[in-house]
Design a protein that fits this description.
391 residues, globular, single chain
């Protein structure tokens, strides 16, 4: 797919028609509070919708209750096995690379700063972690699974932020585009898929090409369920690299909001790390994964651990050798990975289930059978040299 400045600008003006119309109707009729109350009881797919649910909400939930018809379930199972095999590494990539990368885009950082929940970064991180865990469960899309209702609620959350910012005239749509626009949603999808894979590669994780492609495919399915225009989404990892390079060159840079959110993120993870001796490793790992330029924009402090973290690929390589050569070692490391991920999520959620709800107002001071074989090792798509064809 050939991308031009004109085509990217068009994505910048587009939102999510279905979710936007639903949220607008709920606010117009004063039914947001009722919706949020009733939806606390809807947490699994296939559960009966509660009595008293506003008609417009019921229609939305019924229309979005199933994944897209084009889903390849074999590919989704490969993605799930890839996640199981790499769950700690993926959690690390999402936490220390994907989330900070969002803050390197000033408009995105500004949007994230607009919600009450970002005053408490653990809530945002817990919601992201919980969302990913739901996605990678065997029953994610079946009756009783938790992923579909979570996706439906997140989609409405995004629409509500667009609604508030536009209605309260807090966003310069002419110059900044639609809040949480299609371009930013696709960019976010790239951060959580391709950039996560890049980070695993940087950490020295041995991934198969098949596993990497399946992981990217799973995030395409996620994007479809979050209202991303599939006609505009990169179809494979090579297209994804082209889009991500262009997106970052168009938008990345320093911002006060980005630095503030990064500081909150660092503080949060320093609280999770036991004691204080290893606190600097948080900043060092972010700097290693996002690079010095982005880390400087985000005001990530330099620490004595910056050089030590560069040895991570060698340590992880030793662990992978153990895993490859010993079935017992593989089992033990997989269990350790699972327990570590569960412990991290439990620390963030304080043991509670996170509920996604439509915010009724924004911040007042604002200015959202085993592993995939390790064959055909994945190599990241090469960086592209942006050149804009004629529109």
């Amino acid at each position: 797919m050939t991308r031009t400045e004109t085509s990217m600008d068009a994505l910048r003006q587009a939102g999510d028609e279905l979710a936007d119309a639903t949220v607008a109707a709920l606010f117009e009729r004063g039914e947001v509070g009722k919706f949020n109350t009733l939806m606390r009881y809807v947490s699994t797919a296939g559960a009966p919708l509660p009595d008293g649910l506003p008609d417009v909400a019921r229609e939305y939930l019924e229309a979005t209750s199933a994944p897209p018809a084009w889903v390849d379930w074999g590919e989704m199972e490969k993605a799930r096995l890839f996640f199981i095999d790499n769950n700690v590494h993926i959690s690390t990539a999402l936490s220390f690379a994907s989330m900070p990368a969002c803050y390197v885009v000033p408009t995105v950082a500004r949007l994230l700063s607009a919600t009450h929940s970002l005053k408490y970064p653990s809530k945002r991180m817990a919601e992201t972690g919980q969302f990913t865990v739901y996605l990678m469960q065997p029953d994610a899309f079946e009756a009783g699974g938790r992923f579909v209702p979570a996706a439906q609620k997140v989609r409405l959350l995004h629409a509500s932020i667009r609604h508030h910012l536009k209605r309260e005239n807090r966003w310069d749509t002419a110059s900044l585009g639609t809040p949480i626009c299609q371009e930013d949603m696709i960019g976010g999808q790239m951060f959580f898929s391709l950039l996560a894979l890049d980070s695993l590669h940087r950490l020295g994780i041995h991934m198969s090409a098949e596993g990497a492609e399946a992981y990217y495919y799973a995030w395409r399915v996620v994007g479809a369920m979050l209202g991303v225009d599939q006609d505009a989404v990169p179809m494979d990892l090579d297209e994804a690299r082209e889009f991500l390079d262009l997106y970052m060159i168009r938008h990345m840079g320093p911002s006060e909001e980005g630095a503030h959110l990064t500081r909150q993120l660092i503080d949060l993870y320093e609280e999770v790390v036991p004691g204080t001796l290893f606190d600097p490793i948080v900043s060092a790992l972010i700097r290693y994964l996002v690079g010095d330029t982005c880390a400087d924009w985000l005001q990530v402090p330099r620490t004595r651990w910056d050089g030590v973290v560069k040895a991570a690929p060698h340590l992880l390589g030793v662990l992978e050798t153990i895993e490859d050569r010993s079935p017992l070692g593989a089992w033990a490391l997989d269990r350790l990975g699972h327990l570590t991920a569960v412990l991290e999520l439990s620390s963030l959620t304080r043991g509670r289930v996170m509920h996604y709800a439509i915010p009724e107002q924004l911040k007042k001071d604002y200015g959202v059978d085993g592993a995939v074989p390790r064959t055909q090792r994945w190599t990241p798509p090469t960086a592209t040299v942006p050149s804009w064809p004629s529109a």
